[in-house]
Design brief:
Blueprint: H1 6-9, E1 16-21, H2 26-36, E2 47-52, H3 58-70, E3 76-82, H4 85-88, E4 94-97, H5 113-130, E5 136-139, H6 144-153, E6 163-165, H7 168-182, E7 189-190, E8 193-195, E9 203-205, E10 210-213, E11 216-219, H8 220-224, H9 227-231, H10 233-239, H11 241-249, H12 255-270, E12 278-283, E13 296-304, E14 307-310, H13 318-342
Parallel strand pairs: 1-2, 1-4, 2-3, 4-5, 5-6
Antiparallel strand pairs: 7-10, 8-9, 10-11, 12-13, 13-14
Bound molecules: nicotinamide-adenine-dinucleotide (NAD) and (2S)-2-hydroxybutanedioic acid.
GO molecular function: L-malate dehydrogenase (NAD+) activity
Organism: Scleropages formosus
Keywords: NAD, Oxidoreductase, Tricarboxylic acid cycle
Length: 344
């Protein structure tokens, strides 16, 4: 007699529909397995994976679909490869918007604005038309903050709070740099903040960060004991890390970007760890840190019940204020340039 297999017992939730755009690209190749394996939305959550790319990439996408099938992952109920937005954006629970052009050596991310921002206008409109109003949208394609803002503006029927952009990679980079410096595992460093733009003006701020060492929590400045490094090379290393990876690999980061996407979306779905905050680019209106309204700006956040809350009350000294203002000014300029390209 057949008995229920433990795996099928865990398949009782309704499947959720998750879109990854740029699905034939290099980030997607590092990302799709983790999503389909339950590492993001939960080990008991069946998934319908929608894979969007442009028409010339459909043959490559076929190969990705074959590989996903060949993984024999029990949570993966269906894979839908497509080049059509009306198929790709239909009834989505989550959308991870990666598809766009990456920068090459010597470029700033904002140099991609002209090539990429139109994609996010089209895809914002498609979210508005076809996706669930509860859809959670993560924008990864660069320049991620401004693309996210354009997508959100192009989807007026979806709450702006549902849109976020990826600065978790910068957050993880900052955490890891401090951990390596102190000689502790990366999870012993918490509460770093990435303020602002996912660009070379971003401000990785460790004034509120702590290191777990010798059985107690120590402020990062006390643990590192090198203020000049924390206010100098540490910041530029994190700001320039994407460019350093491109210089070395001749391709932009993919494995670490995929890991950060998983961290970001998992925290949206299940909440941030108790007593800890993370960084995410979110809609700035109404914040308490004097950041201009109507930007997608990276803040320290906690998340509960799929709802984020900015961590208020962190003390901002003059050093931090200057850096936060500089990255905000860049975002204002990017927003205005994007709008002039698109007339959104
Ligand atoms: P890639 O070139 O390997 O893949 C991009 C894919 O997007 C390609 O398959 C391409 O055909 C597809 N694409 C292009 N236009 C599309 C459209 N309109 N709809 C659907 N798909 C489309 O690039 P990648 O390395 O995967 O990087 C993708 C993007 O992510 C780049 O813009 C890169 O700069 C950005 N990125 C952001 C972060 C971050 O932390 N925010 C980190 C790494 C990379
Ligand atoms: C990164 O930070 O690695 C990505 O945004 C890719 C890039 O262009 O730097």
């Amino acid at each position: 007699m057949l008995t229920d297999h433990p795996a099928s017992l865990s398949l009782q939730l309704d499947p959720i529909k998750v879109l990854v755009t740029g699905a034939a690209g290099q980030i997607a190749y590092s990302l799709l397995y983790s999503i389909a394996n339950g590492d993001v939305f939960g080990k008991d959550q069946p998934i319908i994976l929608v894979l969007l790319d442009i028409p010339p990439m459909l043959p490559v996408l076929d190969g990705v679909v074959m590989e996903l099938q060949d993984c024999a992952l029990p949570l993966l109920r269906e894979v839908i490869p497509t080049d059509k937005v009306e198929v790709g954006f239909k009834d989505l629970d989550a959308a991870i918007l990666v598809g766009s052009m990456p920068r090459k050596e010597g470029m700033e991310r904002k140099d991609l604005l002209k090539a990429n921002v139109a994609i996010f206008k089209t895809q914002g409109a498609a979210l508005d038309k076809y996706a669930k109003k509860t859809v959670k949208v993560l924008v990864v394609g660069n320049p991620a903050n401004t693309n996210c803002l354009i997508a959100a503006k192009s989807a007026p029927s979806i709450p702006k709070e549902n849109f976020s952009c990826l600065t978790r990679l910068d957050h993880n980079r900052a955490r890891s740099q401090v951990a390596m410096r102190v000689g502790v595992p990366s999870d012993c460093v918490k509460d770093v903040v990435i303020w602002g733009n996912h660009s070379s003006t971003q401000y990785p701020d460790v004034h509120h960060a702590k290191v777990q060492m010798q059985g107690k929590e120590v402020p990062v400045f006390d643990a590192v004991k090198d203020d000049a490094w924390l206010k100098g090379d540490f910041i530029t290393t994190v700001q320039q890390r994407g460019a350093a990876v491109i210089k070395a690999r001749k391709l932009s980061s993919a494995m670490s970007a995929a890991k950060a996407i998983c961290d970001h979306m998992r925290d949206i779905w299940f909440g941030t760890p108790e007593g800890e905050f993370i960084s995410m680019g979110i809609y700035s209106s109404g914040n308490s840190y004097g950041v201009p309204d109507d930007l997608i700006f990276s803040f320290p956040l906690t998340i509960k019940n799929k709802t984020w809350k900015i961590v208020d009350g962190l003390e901002i000294n003059d050093f931090s204020r200057g850096k936060m203002d500089a990255t905000a000014a860049e975002l204002v300029e990017e927003r205005d340039t994007a709008i002039s390209f698109l007339s959104v």
